[in-house]
Amino acid sequence: MRDAEPTRAASSLPDLVRERAAWRAAGCRVVLTNGCFDILHPGHVALLEAARREGDRLIVAINSDSSVARLKGAGRPLLPAAERAEALRALESDDAVMIYDEPTPIEVVRALRPDVLVKGADWAQDAIVGRAEVEQDGGRVVRVALVPGRSTSALLARIRRP
Fold first, then answer.
1. Rounded to a whole number, what is the distance in angstroms from the first to the last CA of the chain?
2. CA triplet 12, 24, 131: central angle to 5 degrees?
3. Cα separation of 112 and 20, whole Å?
4. What is the pTM of this model?
5. Computed from CA positions of residues 108, 111, 112, 116, in that sequence, does the dihedral angle turn out positive or negative?
6. Dist. CA 119–CA 117, nearest whole Å
7. Beta bridge partners of 33
8. In the sheet that 116-120 helps form, which strands lie side by side, from edge to edge?
9. How far apart (Å, rounded) are the C-alpha atoms in residues 143 and 125?
């Protein structure tokens, strides 16, 4: 279902709501995933590729710089949100990337009403923000197995080793 060309640069929630409506009208299944994506690594790529296989369009919502700092602590993020978004936009797996500043992506989920919500398997099913809303709309939540040893925290630990 790749005939309706996606907008690669859509980054505001209002733009994505409009894009989502067009995709829905075209019969596309929309997938949403979210995270910090602080340093893009093979674990992220595997997650994004798995998420892409779940539908026709993939939206990636990333935490803003202040949101990452609140979640991960001092010294994070390592890359500013605009650079993280640029790296994600360069991948073939996603159709749109947006940055959100709220503590959780619940407003993004409510606004976009994805058909599928994808998170890493490190998240318990009942802890996935937006799960109830997606399932209430008839959608589903998919947990993707993590690639062992492929995380930003593991990468940082390897870099910091003497």
1. 49
2. 70
3. 7
4. 0.88
5. positive
6. 7
7. 60, 118
8. 96-100, 57-63, 30-35, 116-120, 140-144
9. 8
SS (H, E, C) 77-124: CCCCHHHHHHHHHCCCCCCEEEEECCCCCHHHHHHHCCCEEEEECCCC
Average pLDDT of the segment spanning 148-159: 71
> How far from 148 is each of 3, 79, 108, 117, 120, CA to CA, in Å?
35, 23, 29, 22, 12
DSSP bridge pairs for 32: 59, 117
Using CA atoms, how far apart are residues 69 and 146, in angstroms rounded to an integer?
23
Q: What is the C-alpha separation between 109 and 106, in angstroms, rounded? A: 5
Which phi and psi (to 5°) does residue 141 adopt? -115, 130
Mean local confidence (pLDDT), 142-148: 87
Token pair listed for 89: 């936009």
Say how many C-beta atoms besides its own lie within 10 A of residue 89's C-beta.
16
The secondary structure of the chain in percent helix, strand, coil, rounded to multiples of 5, reads 40, 15, 40
Interval 49-96: pLDDT, tens: 999 999 999 999 999 999 999 988 888 899 999 999 999 999 999 999
> Hey, how many other C-beta atoms are within 10 angstroms of the C-beta on 52?
19
